[in-house]
Amino acid sequence: MSAVITDGTFYQDPEEDPKKKYNNVCSKASNMAIATNGGEWQKITLPFDYANMDANADLKARAILLTMSTCSVAGCGSKDKKKPDCLYIDDVELVYNYLPTSISSMARNCRHLMLQRTDIPLAEEVILTFLN
What we know:
The chain is 4% helix and 12% strand.
């Protein structure tokens, strides 16, 4: 399984030409070793790597492409016609946990803010007060 955050313009997964550089990729995440569990529900977590987005301030995340396949390498699944690869997917939920990381100055009528921290704050540490 892989997930790619892009700026919303064309992106193809899998990337058939490893030499081609997509300039619209903000972040990637993958898990190429998901074990079978007898058909039971399982939670799969894919941590994103934001190095590309950090290096290019012009990139704006606008879309997430989630790809699930029987083989982590395109075209390299089962070649046996009697035992083909099979993948059953049901009831998928994508949860994207965005953790804000910085606070910038706010204009008087500003309704958005950004928080900067190097750790994850506890719920009781986050207090928002709105003044008239």
